Amino acid sequence: LEEGLALSRELANTDTAKEGKLLGSLGEISLYQGNMALARSLLEESMTILQGEDMDELINKAWLLSQLAKIAAVQHDYTRARTLYEQSLAINREVFFRVNTPFYLEGLASVVAAQGEPTWAAQLWGAAEALRDTMGAPIPPVYRVDYERAVTSARDQLGDRAFATTWAEGRAMTPDQALAAKGQTMLPQQVPTEPSSPQPAKSAITYPDGLTTREVEVLRLVAQGLTDAHIAEHLIISPRTVNTHLTSIYSKIQVSSRSGATRYAIEHKLV
Question: What does the alpha-carbon distance between residue 162 and residue 155 come to, in Å, rounded to a whole number?
């Protein structure tokens, strides 16, 4: 890091664009090293240097704003983080550089989820995932832990079923549609033709042997032949969490193998 800073000072008199980009990269490194004060200082210095209006500098500016947004989010300044992500998205829309769009959507989603808007967050994550699928660009491992933590928290707020429905809705949206939705459902509303009478509350679904809803989801995917890694990707959880669920499942249904779990799922009509 110190060598990089020294090099940036050497570039100051010869190539300010390279200096600005290098400072931005060093700021990002500092961010992931946990040095928020240095990261913010370097990123803001980079911003003051990269003031051009050409496409390359605008792309860099959008990225720098997103990194400053991450710092604000870590410091629980969600209002500032939200504004910075929105600025990143606005610039990105102007230059139409969609490669970075999923990062900004995911960042904004984590912030609005922290602000108590999990429905909108799920829509944004869904739209980002759909865009990543079309580009063949999965989330880089360095961002995965924070991403999964934010997604899990939002899912816990909404409940598995509502979260999955809203996520799927987001996948059907363009980024602009997801940004405009702000948690409002895009699904057609059914209007009853007759006044409806109060319905008795539905009892919660119960599964055999004390299995939880999440454990049944994992069990169904096991029965479909998915590996731990594929299950983790499907449910947006870590492989370690999948392994924890499987340990609990095996203990509850008293089996010791995936084939035994598959047989159990079939016998109990869980697939």
Answer: 8
Contacts of 244 (CB under 8 A, 6+ apart): none
Q: Hey, which bits of the chain come out as E strands? A: none
Tell me if residue 201 falls in helix, strand or coil. Answer: coil
Query: Distance of CA 154 to CAs 91, 141, 175, 212, Å?
Result: 27, 20, 19, 18
Q: Taking 60 as the threshold, does the pLDDT of residue 9 lie above it?
A: no
Q: Is the dihedral of CA 251, 257, 260, 262 positive or negative?
A: positive
Contact 47, 71 (CB under 8 A): no
Burial class (CB within 10 angstroms; exposed 0-12, middle 13-18, buried 19+) of 154: buried
Enter the DSSP assignment of 202.
P
Q: Per residue in 149-199, pLDDT tens?
A: 999 999 999 998 899 999 999 999 999 999 999 867 654 443 444 444 555
Which residues, in sequence order, are CB contacts of 143 under 8 Å at separation 6+? 103, 106
Residues 50-66 pLDDT 10s: 887 788 889 999 999 99
Amino acid at 6: A
Spatial distance between the Cα atoms of 153 and 158, rounded to a whole number of angstroms: 9
Domains and CATH numbers, the chain: 1-51 (no CATH), 69-181 (no CATH), 213-268 (1.10.10.10)
> Residues 169, 119: contact at Cβ < 8 Å?
no
Share of the chain above pLDDT 70, in %: 86
